[in-house]
## 1
Amino acid sequence: MSSVAVLTQESFNEHRSGLVADSAGDEEAPAYKDAFPPLPEKAASPEGTQEPVNAWTSKIRPLKSSVITQVFHVPLEERKYKDINQFGEGDQAKVCVDIMHKTGAHLELSMAKDQGLSIMVSGKLDAVMKARKEIVSRLQTQASATVAIPKEHHRFVIGKNGEKLQELELKTATKIQIPRPDDPSNHIKISGTKEGLEKAKHEILLISAEQDKRAVERVNIDKVFHPFITGAYNKLVADMMQETGARINVPPPSVNKTEIVITGEKEQVALAVAMIKKIYEGKKNATTIAVEVKKSQHKYVIGPKGNTLQEILEKTGVSVEIPPPDSNSETVILRGEPDRLGQALTEVYAKANSYTVSSVVAPSWLHRFIIGKKGQNLAKITQQMPKVHIEFTEGEDKITLEGPTKDMQMVQSQMEAIVTDLVSRMDYMEISVDPRFHRHLIGKGGANINRIKDLHKVSVRIPPDNEKSHLIRIEGDPQGVQEASKELLELASRMENERTKDLIIEQRFHRAIIGQKGEKIKDVRDKFPEVIINFPDPAAKSDIVQLRGPRNEVEKCSKFMAKMVADMVENGFFLSVPIFKQFHKNIIGKGGANIKKIREETNTRIDLPAENSNSEMIVITGKKENCEAARIRILSIQKELANITEMEVSIPSKLHNSLIGSKGRFVRSIMEECGGVHIHFPTEGSGIDTVTIRGPAEEVEKAKKQLLSLAQDKQTKSHTAELKAKPEYHKFLIGKGGGNIRKVRDSTGARIIFPTLEDEDQELITVVGTEEAVREAQKELEELIKSLDNVVEDVMNVDPKHHRYFVARRGQVLRDIADEYGGVMVSFPRSGANSDKVTLKGAKDCVEAAKKRMLEIIEDLDAQVTMECVIPQKFHRSIMGPKGSRIQGITRDHNVQIKFPERVDGPGKGAPVDPTAPRKCDVIVLSGRKERCEAAVEALKALVPVTTEVEVPFELHRYIIGQKGSGIRKMMDEFEVNIQVPAPELQSDIISITGLANHLDRAKEGLLERVKELTAEQEDRSLRSFKLTITVDPKYHPKIIGRKGAIITNIRTEHDVNIQFPDKNDDNQDQITITGYEHKATAARDAIQAIVDELEEMISEDITLDARVHARIIGARGKGIRKIMDEFKVDLRFPQPGAADPNQVFVTGRPELVDEAIDHLLNLEEEYVSTLIWDPGYVSVLSLLLKKKKKIFVLFLECSHLMITDMYLFSLAFSLQAPDMSSSEDFPSFGAPVAATNKASPWGPKRF
């Protein structure tokens, strides 16, 4: 029985307030056992009545808090921040906040009357000390001082790992700088407050004073006498250090030094030196003897970590000197007293001969079996004989044993027994297999070889590839070795007979066959595990896929893969659809929505060119009919977005190839010349004459004329000629805006085609037309090329003030001239040369043309004017466009320079003195020719966004904005405008649209269209909100809802309505509300009414069913009752606990089904009641058990394999009185006589 200590309210209050007498004024925190004493043990008191005294009966001592508070004062004259007006706001407050974040302490500032600063710091001790240091360094003015102490004392100020220095800085709240070891200065610099300086100075001088009392002495004594000074196991030197208090450092035996260093206070050092010299004097005349001991036995004399030498020194007082390991000497020297040398010599020989070396003959291939897995076999021996060392040498047929002589015989016999056993039951075999089959024998991830090893319990060694060996070694049980070798040879033989087949599969299908992360090819390999499938390296551009394996499997795999490829070919049809680059983003859609939808619905793959690519082709891959469907949908998107015309031209199919030209050169030149129209020829060999031209109406018409003209020429008489010219001449031959080449075409009637960037031969120029036209055009072009080859050098004068314009931006202007005029080289004089001569070098015509162009530029520069355009700053970003694209276009088109002003934030900033003058931040400066600047100003003003207002009902605004603004963002992206919806609190119907004038109309139409859609949706919602109420008796509600809501869910789904049943607290419990379209709500009402009508036809009868059998009829988790209800299509209701009649059960359903269900229930009752047995003896047992535990609610007493469950028994048992614990009759004491009683025992009469 345990005792409980009670903490009263008074003692608790005393504990909290710290008023307990025993602990008052106690500064030290109590120990754990004092604060939480153990409970007292029950023991007999010697006085009989005296209670045991312990900590629980005494006063409770208060626990000491770990949080401390300190107050620091900073006088006015030492304050770093003295601005009194900004107290709590300025730099001082910021510093305090920073200190709190850095240290974790809490700071509170207050100002004294003398304008001094008081800072209260709370927190843990370490945090408070750190905060104090920060306060002193950042809020107090700093002074500095130096203190000089001997250089050798500096390290004591620093301490181990700088800990002493950190502690000193924290304690004094100063910064201490100690000179580096290579600095000869002995001055230590201290910075901090005056008070801190004094404290730090005092502490440093104290450390130095302590070190002044210390001394260092070095004594040189021959190395051979060091063991006598240290003593065995360093006991003697330790005793000397304890006795003198000095520190004695004797170099270890491995260090060849004779100097012994003694440090400490002067008196202590002197005493230690005297003691060391005394030992040396006593031993310097010691006797020595030299003996020969085998080199291999030296380690046994030394012992582990030199312990044997120390043991001999301790026993005999004799030092044993062993030659170093790198020496060949076998002489061991003993040094000591003559009468002890004999004993020491005996010990040396005993230790030398205590270990022996022997060997056991064992074939080298058996070594790993002797060792066992992870050394298990060997561990059994070494655990018994830990001093024995067993060494295996690779390639040698022996095992070396080394250890104590007494253990060696047993270990050797054990090892020989193991070797004999292994030789008798182990065997090995070497088989020859061609190295090219080795990796196939191993299998993927070692699968094959591991299976053979596990199956036959053998070890198989297959040589690595670099050895190029044929021999495979098998080791293990003789039978296992035979079986494994047989299986390996069969595998090798099968591989020799296997077939290799090359399958031709176009490389473009390889990736599709392999699949993402090799998933598809893995399935193929799993299907044909014996076939090895090798794909060529992608860089090799090979179509050969190699299959290797058994002949039949290779053939099956080949057919399977051929079928895969055939399916891919069927799905690999592709179309290239030309779509204007600006519409690609619309085809992709926001977040890829459009392209994803087309891909999913047409089951095709759609690839768009890269954003930085010049290609306009969209490639569609899949089945032919699916590709056509995807193509139509993509073209329809483009048609909706732009004024694109599609025209069909009939041209004989036999002329198509000649019109397309080599690699599409002719048709490409027409497309480029006609504003980038798309010309689509039918598939070669189809026999279709229709050619489709798509693009802007004017350009389509122009392309049509050119195509028909070219086709007519081809039909009449077509001739082609080729000539070559350097690529840098092409631009000059074409001329500005195609002027030069147009002249040649107009004069000769021939068509001239220049190479594109994609063509391999960049020098080839093709001339197409009638023979005469081609000849004349070729002649003119050859003359132009010849003149370009005639290199001349010319000089022109350019005013130095214009030089910078030409060479600026890394000579961009000069590079443009060179590109345009046949690669003319233009050289300007060096900067600072003060020369106006500019040299031009190149073809004569090119030089003349470049010179003319430069003069035009100079004329423009001379005629350059500066013009201002005033546009409010808020529109500047819109005018610039994304990444400055719009402004770059104006600069390029009008050949002017545009400079925007610096941005000024705030409405009042940047305003001029004159209120009528424009603000500087609104003025855009343009420079260039006057007429060009004027045109550029108009272009800039055209980019100024304008605002229009659209009236939209306020209640529709949130639908226009959409979820998280998605709706309004979509409209802004689509129409390239900004749409401003008023704030909800304004309740305004006006929506503002801001953007370029040509975009506003489309945006306004789009917004009004959206309003129409939302209005229609509102009307639809209004129609859907029709409500209908039906009155249904609440007792039918569960039946209408159905099990887990199945029936009501079905009605809701079928009629698309919402059906609401009354809540428990509603007044009208019989009202069911239906919401939806009027006709659908009426239909749902009729469906519910039909169910009610059916339910009203049912009857309900009550029967009396013994309450004792209810649980069995209901069954576990209602399984039994559900079965009855499903079988007879009735509803059963059993009484609730505490019902007036616990035996009454209600059965509801159709009359004929109710009768059947009642008969079944009565039969079950009769069956279950017959199994219940009642006995007064059981009632007594139950009553006695319930006396012991009153909280038993369910008791199953199994007796004679019958189960008693009856609420009557429980009520009877709980009605009995509780036992009388004071009665000696019911609860007798040990050894006390029991009074006789006449009460009958519930268990019957006593039998003893």
## 2
Amino acid sequence: MENLTQPEDNSSAVLDFDELELKLSRCRTQINSKLDNQRNLALILSAVEENIVNQGNNKTPIAYFVSFLALLDQSVSRDAVVEEKVATAAAYFLDITVPFTAKSLLRQEFSAILTKLAPILTNQNVEALLIKSSIGALEGLIIAQDSQQWLNTSNVSPKRAILGMLELSFDPRPKVRKRAQDAIQRILSTPPASPSPVHPAANLCAEIACKKLASLLQLRSGSKKSQKNKEHNSSMIHTLQLITAITSANSWPTSQVEPLCDVLLLASKTSDEFIVSSAFGAFDGLFASMSNDIDLEKFTAILQIIIDLKPSLNDTHIAVAWLAVIANAFLALAKLLPQTAVSKVPSILPLVAEFISSESKDIYSSASQSFIAILCEGIPDSLLTIHAGQEVYELVDDVISFVAQFVTEELFSIKYQHAVSSLIEIVTAAVSKFGNRANPDFLGALEVVGNWRTNEEFNFPHNKKAEDFIATCIAAMGPEVVLSTLPLNLTETSKERPGRAWLLPIVRDNVRLASLKYYQNEILPVVSKFETLIKNSQDPKSMQCKVFQTIIDQIWSILPGFCDLTTDLESAFTDEFAAYLADKLYSEVGLRVVICKSLKTLIDSNMVYTDEATEVSAYETEKLSIEGAKQNIAFLASKSSNILSMLFNVFSSTVPESRGFVLDTIDAFLRIVPAADLENSFNKVCALLKQAIDEEGEQQSKLENGQLLSATMMDLVVAMAKYVPESSLNALFSILATAIKMESNALMQKRSYRIITKLSETESGVNAIKQFNHELQKIILETAETTSLSCRPARLAAMQEILATVSSDDLSFIPSILQEVIMSTKDVNEKAREISYSLLIQMGRVMEKGGVIPNAGMLENEDAVKQANLTEYFTMVCAGLAAQSPHMISAAITAISCIVYEFKDELPQDVLLEIVSTVELFLTHNSREIAKAAIGFVKVEILALPQDLIQANLSQMLAKLMKWSHEHKGHFKTKVKHIIERLIRKFGVEAVEEAIPVEDRKLVANIKKSRSRAKKKEAGAEADKAKNDPKFMSAFEEAVYDSESEDEAEGNNNGASNGKGQPEKFILNTGDEPLDLLDRQALAHISSSKPKKFSKKNIKDHDFAMKNGKFVINESSKSSLESAESGIDAYLDAVKQAPVRGQKNKLKFKKTKEDDWSDSEDAPAATRPSKGVRDSKSKVQKPKQKFKARKKL
């Protein structure tokens, strides 16, 4: 084995070692398994790994492979397996490691490895588990061989190995046979690199399998004994399974297809249903793998023979397999000869459709799926897009007509009524496949299904699938065709003309590439009729009026769909229609969302359609060309100026909280408006803004919605900012500079900052910010003191965009805004805090890239110019620690924590150490705000900084930190304890206990106790869980054998139990004689309740006396029935005292008063004291409420 330990060839394709390690780690975890085989594997793996380490080798795939192969060799002597357990484990691990071993090694040592595996594979007495693992190892070995190795004809060659694998694929043991067949399939699926795509062993495998099947068929026909036939049948099924494995690997040679078909046809004609089913499976794999030219006549003959083998309609076992073969055969034909396949559709579909009439759900479901597969995949899309006038077009048209007629006249007959759901799926798939060419052939099917859905009395059970079919028709043929076949009939309904308002939501969700003119002429006029009905109604709030209003809303909801890639935009979107929509926008607030969405869809759909990244189907191109979509955009651009003016007015009159959709529509039109019109519109808005600002200076002029006119106009300026032409940039930045300085108007300030963020969304806007960068910096710095607090997030966001375009030659903007950004980390607004943190990191990135900071020197002896780098940036941030106010110092520490965590890997070690030691000084500060920030920094330090740096400074840090371990306010003690726990997890208890001050070691002891307590609690919980786990494998065994639980249950029910949970038993007084436990009457003398002994005191309590040595019973009291005045009263008394059913069907017994009931189902309890009388041991309690039912009947 020395020659196997050569270094690994790096050029070989070796799988990731991590995957091998993952598989081996799963085996290692079984070292304590209760199963012997799993524990044995883990022990052997552990011994092998120990041996590899002792030899000084690394745990590589080759080392594992060589070790396990040597172990296998030791456990096999000549042709016998000496140690089967060791051999099984070695083969198992070889199966795992072979795919990860270098292929060059497997090729070089093929003979040696095969020689070691051969004794196991050829021994019939070896266990199946060992053979399965050996097959897996042999599979990896064969896959690794190159084409040169397959030319070897010696006794020890890949071909000899594959012959052995083929022998095992006929093994009588199912698992061995299945493993061998799967291995052959994988081997043939991965041929070695060669000019031929077919595996070198494909011919050999096909020839052997074919001859084997032919010989078995011959033997079966010659044998008359049933037992022999049974054995032959099993062997035939195994051979057919092997053929299926070879064909599914797409490796059956073309030259062997004809002999195979002949043999399979013979097998299909046998009387054994399992052989027939397996033969069909082999056919299925063969047809699915066909990718080369075929002999059409031969293929047609085979297909015809299979068709002639049509099984019974109710033969579940064979019918499903036969349907799959027919479908795959047709799909193979369509793949190779599409035009021929289309011509055969009319002859194939009726055969498949016959099985839909079967009563078996499995059969008619399979038949419907085969029908759909032949329609959808058997007719290529390329043939459907051929224009009229060609021969193929007429052929496809005839097929579509045949399918539609067959579905309408045959499948929709009463013969197939049990499979209506499957039929609707078929017709839905057909319409989806044929698209616009389904019109007008499928209108009959549409009418039938529509009538099923419309007829409410029929109570059609498949309404959802019927609606899906109608939706498919709308998407494929258009709403005009569907609504002409199934009219809405919203205004004039009758039995002959039923209303179909349920169609409106279906049209809304599926309409696209439709005619807007049709909507205007046929659907929209219904709205005015219903509006008239509502107006003339005596009660506008009646249910009928609400139904009318719902229909109106649904009709308007269809409009966006008709605007999605409208096919007749230029003729339909006239000035009159635009004026009508504008009038509705002004007059009806509820329609603004729908109309704005429709206008936005007009632009968005056409722009997406013309985008080069969008994939456009042939059906869409047929409806609307790319050039047509570009013309639509140009047409809308010509009208965009007027539409924008209208939208500006609507925006001004809409409540600020509900006008986002108007702004989105404005943004869509701003994208296509011509530059000249945009400039005019912008100038108008600027003029209105100036006028509003002037008027508001004198008096607060507000709009009807309560919003200031200046703020509304400023919103429009913000929306237009990123589209403004370069000629209007001066005016835009002039507005920004003016509005940003309005100290008393926070709304204007916020919108001014948003102009900068809006500009950053486009490339031209970024260039504008870069062009006016110095002016913007100046404005930002000048307004630092006058900015409202509510504008802080918008201001910081604007700073981010300005900083992104700042020049590296002048980074003075960073130190100028640094103090404000640091202070913003303590802002009450969460968004402002988040932006300030990201801005701190962004400034660090800019400084890291380098640059110049002019005028950085604040004193005369300092340099006027400094170079930008990270160390300089940290120096500037740390300068905030010298501030006078605790708030500023706290903010500076928070900022340092943020940037230290972000730049910990880029900073030098000495700078980090200096920052840490400086910030830790503030742990001893008396200000809680500063200390809180410093504790936060310590937490970041522990998480982010190198371990050796923290450990060197551990004692000093803890000495300062423990000052706050006794402070309860602000959760200081909890935070300190949390930090100590983290340090213990990182460095261990001993190191922390040694570094912590002596007087504070109680905290460490407390943490240790808490952890110990938590571990005990967890262990106790696990023990309880194990205790509560079932002791028996099944509920039946528990019921039969777990008598103790039954006794406990009985004992609990009786109420008397001993210390072990068992009920106590008492022996009644039997006189002088002892109780005979063997007597049949012994059970009558045993009681579960303690027997009561009567004394003289008990006799006195009873109502009887002694007279002349006799008992005299006192009969002064009468029975309850005798005391009643009549029989009726006695009956009423009995009824009143009877129990009644209460909540949860419990019996309730009456106690004393009518309102006093008991929930017990036992006899009534003792009478309670009357009202006002209090028992000495009881407490005054709130009287129970009378039981009332939750719902009224």
## 3
Amino acid sequence: MLDDDESTQWQDGGISNQQGSVYLPSSGKLSIPTKEDSSPLTAVIKMGWLDKNPPQGALYYQRRWVKLDVDYLRYFDNDKDVYSKGIISTAFITNVTSVGELKFEVVTNNRTFIFRAESEVERNDWVTVLQDCTRGRRPRSTISPSSPLTPEYQGNLELRGLRSKLYTVVASDKVYLYKNIEDYRIGVGITSIEMNVGNVKETDRRCFDLTTPYRIFSFIAESEQLREQWVDAMRDAIGEALSNREVAERIWVEPSNSLCADCGAVKPEWAAINLCVVVCKRCAGEHRGLGPSISKVRSLKMDRKVWTEELIQALCINVQCSDVLETLSLIFCGADVNCSTGMASWPSPLSLANAHSQPLQAELISHNLNTEVVGDMDPVHYSAPTCVSHNGFLFKTASMARAITERKAREEFSRRWCTLNDGTFSYYESDKNSNPNGALKASEIVCLAVEPPEKHGYDHTFELYIESERLYLFGTDDPDSHKEWVKSIAKSFIPATAEPLLRLGFERIGRLKCKDGLNLQTSKVGWFALVGSTLHAYLADSQGEEIHLRKLNELSIQQDNEVLVLVERGRTLYIEGERKLDFADWCTAIQAAAGSGGDTLSQQQLTETDIPVIVHSCIGYITQCGLTSEGIYRKSGVNSRVAALCERFRRDARSLRLREGEHQVDDVSNTLKRFFRELEEGLFTSEDSSTWLGAAAIQDESMKISQYQLLFNKLPHVNKATLQALINHLYCVQRFSELNQMNLHNLAIVFGPTLFQTDGKDYTAGRAIEDLIQHYTSIFEVRLTAQWQTGTEPGGHFICTVYLEEKKDTAEQHVKIPGSMTAAELVCEVLDRRNIMVKEKEYWSCWEISDKEEMERPLHYQERVLPILHSFGTDSHLLIKKHVAMDAMIVYLASKVDASKHGMMKFREERSILGLGLSSGSFHDRYFILNSNSLRMYKEVRSNRPERDWPVKNLKVYLGVKKKLRPPTCWGLTVVYESKKQEKPERQQWYLCCDTQSEMREWYATFLSIQDGLQQTRVSRVLPDARHGNVSLIPLRGSENEMRNSVAAFSQDPLAVS
């Protein structure tokens, strides 16, 4: 907080705390929230890292995070500190100039501060901004009474744990700390504390604490009397910080309101709302003494809601019902009876009351009207539920505090006369009674659930959940009456903003809290309706949306059953359990809706491409682990294991992850076959399956293919996607027939009867499947490349061989590579398949290995794998292994002041002797300078002009130099330069050798940090940079701890989520 050479006195007491900027005792430190939670400060004009030179001629610089706003230049120990290490008032800055290399001076009348930027551009930018900020001001030499910083209270306070006192100033809504009164007078301080997040508490005789979410400041005053004065001053500052001048300014516009009605004081900040007069603070105390029945006093600054549209909204809603006392209370609190309702048909509360047949409400409003006329006003937008009336007999059980798990017999229901009127649902002993047995306000109802027919003793039932964690069950045998009651009750508590939900045939409808997108700090209210396997939602300030539960990537309950996490297409939605009773039933209903709903394809849990999860999982597992397994799909699995797998997939296919070692290839292949054989309606549909078999008899190949294409396009969407995925997979299997012995004919024999669900006595079904596989590319219009690209999804997949740790047959992994797969995702895929857990300080990477050039490089975690495969030759492959030098490279980069590097290396170009194709030349010493823009090579250290200058963005750096070049050391780098020019692309390759291994690692680490950044180095189960529209989202997998870590990392740096 102080300048570096003066901070020793803060540390002598043994209370140094490097995490903070105030060096508080450890016991007084609170956890620091993320920057999103920080208290709002004055708008920052510029901020960034600078090196600061302490005063008194010290030679060393220390790195500081610097912020500039219109009033102060502040510098911090790091970018996460809330309280600064020092502040310089811009009002006292007399000059800002550039001095020396990358340096600039900030000059006041009594002090000169020197800062150093990382580049000349950055230095010039800081100088320009500072000059603009101070231009036009008359520099001050000392604080004067007319200064902008006018203190309400000031003096010396001791901060507990320090040997010296700080000069403390309470001004407006802030508290400033200075080393002494002299520093205060010259505008050079330690820090400022925003009081809108503060709380003052008296402790011992002379002590008091100023508590904020970030630090606890424990002050000691010189006497008990002074302590009281300090506490009062700081509490006034808190009041000033929390106050809102908007209402006061609007009221003061009227000249008669600019003076106190009693004593004439200027700009009174209080009002007697029932007397319609404004008074000053002193007179407000006298009015309070009269009692609220005579004078109801409110603050113009603190009680903002009294003066806002919230009262107007409440009044407009309430006049539609018969609660006259509530309307009277709202009028006494200041609600304007002359306000505009925002509705053209009923522009005033009086017309609204008359329209809803409320004569007493209309009479009360008319007696409180004044002579003002409602003019053209901005409409007040509020959501008032439509006034609904309904009555009739229902059968009701006693209310419950827990979910209903057993069937309720008819004997447990009692017949009740029920009415719904004025937003209140009441039930009576009979239609003759005037006093209800009980009543539920519509505002208390949070959920309405429609039970399946005949679940209880009465054929048609519904449940009502209320705020107080109670559940009410009602029933009837009349389906029309049941439907009308459900419609009326839902209409009474669902707001107008979510009215489209009422038009759905919902099974459950209600209110829940949720979070989504990047706003994970604040919950918002959402209105949800569950219809079949679709969850319809209307969130705050957004249009309605649909969540297809069977197509979710993930559905889990986290944080001790308090959060339901739904991940769909990269979008994560967190539904929170505000009340245990209805939330538990929502979770049960959503989980049931998200499961498989039957034996047809469309009723299965689906992927984003509308393929059943069971089919996608089995195909993926066999592609990865069984393509070379002899007799795949022909061998039988263990029947008990196959039955268990089928049951687990049927219960929840999404939660089952097939793993090598845990599941056998033949068990999985038989599970897939059994699924298709037992499928209701079949893959080809019972209506058209005979037509498919008939097409197999067509002799003309082109006519046969056209008929297959016609039949394929007639299939339902899910059937089409599933058939194409399966035939694509079988096409891949037969390409490995030399190893697995499953050629085209053998696969057709197995899958013909399975897919057409026939007895297999003839080869008709087999012929159709053989045709589909043989003419796969024509029927499904798939384009193949030399590496037989497959076409499961738009853009296609590759089946690629990846090796784990070393290149050998036992380490081979056949992986399906979609066009969007990144290196990090490929590493996770392979490690998951081999059940390898990533330990602390382990850095797994995907490496590009070139056997011919004897070089290798780790792919950046966001680098797409497919383009790398396209550029491969036959002598290259991908290898998943640990990056053993990564930890040392990270430590090295953390110790660097800047990103550049320079030094001597041995250099050799790739040149060929004409006609022989042999490289020539030898290694020569050269001096290199690497910065964020370019790599420059000089003949020697003293050279002024570089021999070569390459842009860094066009360089690709590999570890290793091929031995035939006879490198002078074994610590070499191969650098490939590729120009981006369309008209004349250029490729160069040369070699660099370092004297030591650590030197080579330093150069390589610098290359990586400049090109890609070394933020992402560890593997995790979170897939980076998933997006939904233009909003970054967080798909989550794994345990609760992994979820929390993912959210925390994402909130700090979305691009560095690993």
